[in-house]
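Notes continue from the previous slide.

Worked example: a multi-chain complex. Inputs as given:
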Amino acid sequence: MLHFSRWKILSILAVCLLSILYALPNFLSAGALANLPSWWPKQSLSLGLDLKGGSYLLLEANVDQLKKEWYDQIEDDVRTRLRKARVQYTGLGQAADGVRVRISKAEDIEKAKTELNGMIQPLQGSFFTGQSANNLDIQSAADGSFTITPTTPALTERLSNGMASLISVLGQRINALGTTEPTIVRQGADRIVVQVPGLDNPERLKEIIGRTAKLSFHEVDQSKTIEDAEATGVPPGSKIFAMERDDKDAKLPKGKILLKVAPVVSGEDLVDAQPSFDSQTNEPVVSFRFNTSGARRFGNYTQVNVGRPFAIVLDDLVISAPQIREAILGGSGQISGNFAVQEATDLSISLRSGALPISLEVKEERSVGPSLGQDSISSGLVAGLIGGIGTAGLTMLVYGLFGAFAVLALLLNGLLLIAIMSGVQATLTLPGIAGIVLTIGMAVDSNVLIYERIREELRSGKTAISAIEAGFNRAIITIADSQLTTLAAAIVMFWLGSGPIRGFAVTLSIGVITSVFTAVTVTRLIVALWLRRARAKQRNIEVPI
Amino acid sequence: MIWKGWDFFPHGTHIDFMKYKGLCLAASIIAMAIALALFFVPGLNYGIDFKGGTLIEIGSKSGPINIGDIRSKVSGLGLGDVQVQEFGRPEDVMIRVEAQPGGDKAQLEVAAKIKQVLGDSVVYRRQEVVGPAVSEELRTTGILAVLVSILAICAYVWFRFEWQFAAGVVVALVHDVLLTIGVFAITQMEFDLSVVAALLTIVGYSVNDSVVVSDRIRENLRKYKKMPLSELLNVSVNETLSRTILTGGATIFVLLCLLFLGGAVIFPFTFAILFGIIVGTYSSIFVAAPVLDYFNVKRDWASGGGKPKGQAAPSV
């Protein structure tokens, strides 16, 4: 047990060298880091948001809204198809399980069935499973009623696509804020985790990523007043919208406005949006530019409707309803809505990136300011240093020279831990620092177990060498048992935990592994080397313990 | 000249731990019952992780902060139950607002409203918002995590030792976790996600401790075939006593450093681990070992199948 072959010694030394190599960038300034040769690994510890400051947001996509929009689409489709085929129907509408419609005449049912079946399309199913699924499932009943339901695989596919484009839209918006290294990751079916380091205004982040930014331009329906529409019913193809702000210009009734549902131009036709100032009033506005087809439609519409009001709708709220003074032919314009400067900037960021395909809700937020993060790092360092020095002192006091060996192993343990965390870029969080400090205590435990065992064997009258050998042999089993259970707890933590807890679990797991390596293998090597020298010098070895 | 260690700890002690086993077990059972009762009444002071709500930590730009002033400003907002308290040092204040009725939207507006009334006069150090759906999930996974880890460890100990050992270890684990929860109920210290992580760490450490003692008991069961069980348990605990105290001492020292120097954010976390490790050390001696006595661990398993079960390392 105390014999080490040459290659074993070499590989332990190699591990030590590698750990120095990987840990070193953490102790160097940026300038010194740049001077290192190019093969040197330059990653330093990746700090969690609770240490470097920043925002963590858990967002959930509104799946119900996604479903609702699809139902709307199906309903439209059913209406057009049945009208085209001149099939009379009643009760077209949505239920929880899909869109329902009832064919009025029995002789039309077959025709309707063919027409509706035309809506069914195969999904681009998985190539490997070879399963073919359709997008819709159509059920018909004897009384001539049909239920059209999106299939589960189709919903999943739509959600997946939506999530993918959500992530790209969010990426554009967050990058526009000019922050470094944001991470945007999908979690589960309908959630997204956004982590933005170093941002000290979480309110603004939420404002920018939470806004759907669905922009559209609508014709104002002037065939009825709001009071009329509310009393006698909204004209077909129109809808009552809420006004976000009162508009002095158009002298429209406050609060509500009747608009045609079909937009003249929508946000999809926008190619650019920038914050700017109105040349006359000098108030902040958002200037936008349409693509060619959008510009043409907008131009045509404004040409014909000079003198009439039109409305700009953002996320189902009318933000402005100006009168068309002259035809707008250039394809660009501006939105005014009593914005503050930052509001105008943020709105243009959201508009430029395009609307969110699914609306989002913030379910959880954790933001840490840079000052608190800095404080946490320094207090963690102080606690770790004092704890480490105290433990080292105690170990050397109790175990003498062998204690010093253990301290050497402890130092290497720290280095190894930092090296592995830097190398695999595991995130160090505040509880993670506590995990490291705790590992110091645990690492000492392994050495205590070994040394106490050696003392015991010595007391029972064994010679130095056999006592040391027995001490290591017997203690290793206990160490393995006790550390494996700690590892089990850490794995459970990682499996179930989130954020900072995971950071703690990762640090603890790595710490358990490195501490077993250093306390058992490295200490044993040092003791073996010492023993070899001592044996050469004298016959009766006294164990310095 | 050789640098020798100071072997200050008396060896060959013959403290009769098992003499008090009835008393200790009774005390532990009563303590566990009290802790369980405290868990229900008055209950834990759950942090926003588990009941939803908003937490904002602010710091003054210069000098101690006027808590009364902040309290009156924030409570004027009509946000329901609002707690304003000093956090760690006189410059810092923590504001906690209960979960708002009206879904996630209302939840998110709390921080903005508070920032509006407090303005730029303070530094915003931390802000956490947990919605109702997430807090419920965290609650479930938190309970699950503690249960699963206890079960996993129980399975491991059962696999490595006899079932009596597993029973002893589990009783000790439940004891440590329950008492820690009880202390949080008494002190009304905030019980959040990090405290659950602390509970899991306690589970890990406590089992570590119990395993060391169990390991020695198993070894001695093989060594002293004729010794009465109660005496054998005593010998085993006495033999490992120096290790228990040294390791426990080192770990407790390190944790005290963290507790007093590590900052207010992780105070509940460190406190939980510290307390858990103290009761964990106690329970591995006074709970896990006596349970073995009561279950009357089998003595013949070393000779039963010819070969000893479990590890077969020779006791040199």
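Summary box: Chain A has a mean pLDDT of 85. The first helix of chain A runs from residue 6 to 23.
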